[in-house]
Amino acid sequence: MTSREQTDRRPHRLREVVATRRGYVLAWWGFTATFALLRLITWLIREDVTLLGDVAVGGTHLHHYLWGILLLALVGGAALGDRSPRVRAALGLFFGIGLALVVDEAALLIQLEDVYWDTFGWVSVGLALLVIGVAGSVLAMTEAPREPGR
Fold it and tell me: Exposure pattern of 73-99 as b/e (b: 16+ CB <10 Å)?
């Protein structure tokens, strides 16, 4: 393999992704996987297929956007400090998960009522697919900064 082929080669494993970009990749993966998993779990709950159920406190249903907002707040607070590449990667992953928890219920937040399975609930699905597509495209079409010594 020539040196040009080595420098133009796309990473195939996470550890091959430039450390400064790894958090973005993990955020995208975390968002995508969490959104898909949320939709599956909520459908299973709705169909009463599993032993899972809604989370409620004192009879009040706690929507999963609440956990997403809390996770985003924690990630934001932790990101204010200077962090190692490993911590930045973890923050990226948790950011993606938190964002998916919020975006999955975006229609509910817009309507201020539970429209998750109504027609308007597709707004959340559309928004999530837009985030997945745009973020994936940006990651695929932009070049990662070169690490010193590479």
Answer: eebeeebeeeeeeeebbbbbbbbbbbb
Residue 105, CB-side half-sphere exposure with 13 Å CA sphere:
18
pLDDT digits 0-9 by tens, 51-110: 888 899 999 999 999 999 999 999 999 999 988 999 999 999 999 999 999 999 999 999
Do residues 93 and 30 lie in contact, with contact meaning Cβ atoms separated by under 8 Å? yes
Residues present in the chain in total: 150
Amino acid at 68: G
Dihedral in degrees, nearest 10, Cα atoms 100, 134, 75, 87: 120
Burial of 40 (0-12, 13-18, 19+ CB in 10 A): exposed
